Amino acid sequence: IPVDPFDLVIFGGTGDLARRKILPGLYRRFLAGQMPEDARIIAAARSEMDEDAYRAFVAEAIAEFVEPGHRDKAQIQAFLARLSYVATDAKGSDGWDSLKALMRDGVVRAFYFSVAPSLFGALAEKLHEYGIADGDSRIVVEKPFGRDLASARALNATLAAHFNETQIYRIDHYLGKETVQNLMAVRFANSLFEPLWNAQHVDHVQITVAETVGVGGRGEYYDRAGAMRDMVQNHMMQLLCLIAMEPPYKFEPDAVRDEKLKVIRALTGVGHDEIVRGQYRGMPAREGRKAEPSYTEDVGNAHSRTESYIALKVGISNWRWQGVPFYLRTGKKLRNRISEIAITFKEPPHSIFDEDDAWRENVLAIRLQPDEGMTLTVMIKEPGPGGMRLTEMPLDMSFADWLSEDADIPDAYERLIMDVIRGNQTLFMRGDEVEAAWAWADPIIAAWEDRGERPHGYDPGSSGPEDALMLMHRDGRRWREIR
Ligand code: BG6
User: Which reaction does this enzyme catalyse, per its entry (predicted)?
Assistant: First the structure.
């Protein structure tokens, strides 16, 4: 179904995010027939460039980031015809009159701030000064949304000076992932799970986001952030909220966000023995494999104490989750790329079998990527005449196998940009949520900074520092394998 006609302005239209995600995503939505005839995309950036040069830039991005099966010459040309480019100076006056002249009345106006947060204020101001934004316009902002509570508050205040909360779309691309949205469907569209979804039946929850990549070319940003700011405060926090929140009364923006906020506010602090930070080591060249740089080499800071891995245990102080630990871990250069949420249920209250050592826990594992799906482990009898021996059987559900091959699963960004045009904020973070997440993270970060702690080293391709194992062993539990 096509969305309403729109003018979408992408500030930072020549940047990396625009090239990798925003523009290829918009092209895919165009192919899917979701862009109405008169939808237009206007890129704005500092560089002087004419329209043809910009279109060539976008054609290259499509060639690089869109699957070959979707690269149709005629369609690409038709998509490029929707694009314009205006060289614009966020801090000066260049380009703003031309931008204004391009905007049409009677269509949705959306402005994507795909630029450094230090420019958000200047852009918001200019949009008003030149009368380009109106009361219905929407702005989209990217993470990082601040680096602590104070800076997030300042950023919120800057945006609030020109826009209402209902106009501000703070992107957390994890919320646009198909399986993340499926979490809500699994929980709230089935009667099977919800009665078990509480401290009475759940032993613990593990949330893992493991990556195989290092910090790549983003060293400068990453070394100032680290895994806590880069992944935990936002993406992992959102996953935790969707798992732990109470059922909203409706699938509607503020109903959902109110419930998420309550979870964040109920999070317990994290003691210093409940957190392990790691940093990947380098690897010398081995047979047939190139040497791999260490984290400190990647970021060009030999003394860096920033973590590229973090594991922590946190609780939620409310009726539903009292006493249930949530174990979170994320890291770069780990053995495999996998994001999953695993809910481990309590053992049956009494065993009628003589199997003291049998592993009798049911686990519901929800895989976000790759191979999106769910696995529920159940205990069954081991086949054969050998008496009553128990074994574990996975009930495996792969979403990809179930959905038809040509099911159109949009990338997170595609979905979210279309939601902006539709005016649906359900999958975007509200200002108070972001602030609450920083209010939780700040004292944890301050505590390790005060202790002057160095992260533990771990080998690339491993599952993280040894000490992270202890975090769970101590509680008589174990991490799931990163495989
Ligand atoms: C980004 C982080 O927000 O998310 C990156 O800044 C991280 O460091 C990325 O690699 C992970 O996203 P995805 O979609 O690849 O899981």
Answer: D-glucose 6-phosphate + NADP(+) = 6-phospho-D-glucono-1,5-lactone + NADPH + H(+)
Catalytic site residue from 235, 272, 303, 350: 235
Q: CA nearest 152: which of 446, 434, 433, 445?
A: 434
> Which residues contact residue 41 at a Cβ distance below 8 angstroms, ignoring those fewer than 6 apart?
8, 10, 23, 26, 82, 83, 84
Match 């800076």 to its residue by tokens. Answer: 151
Query: For 425, phi and psi rounded to 5 degrees?
Result: -95, 5
Contacts of 454 (CB under 8 A, 6+ apart): 279, 305
pTM greater than 0.90 (yes/no): yes
**Catalytic-residue membership of 235:** yes
| Strand, helix or coil for residue 217 | helix
Q: ipTM more than 0.95? A: yes
Q: pLDDT tens across 308-345, in order?
A: 999 999 999 999 999 999 999 999 999 999 999 999 99
Burial readout 90-102 (b: 16 or more C-beta within 10 A, e: otherwise): beeeebbeebeee
Residues 64 and 281: their CA atoms lie apart, in Å, by 31
In three-state secondary structure terms, 117 is: helix
Helices and strands: H and E segment counts in the chain: 16, 15
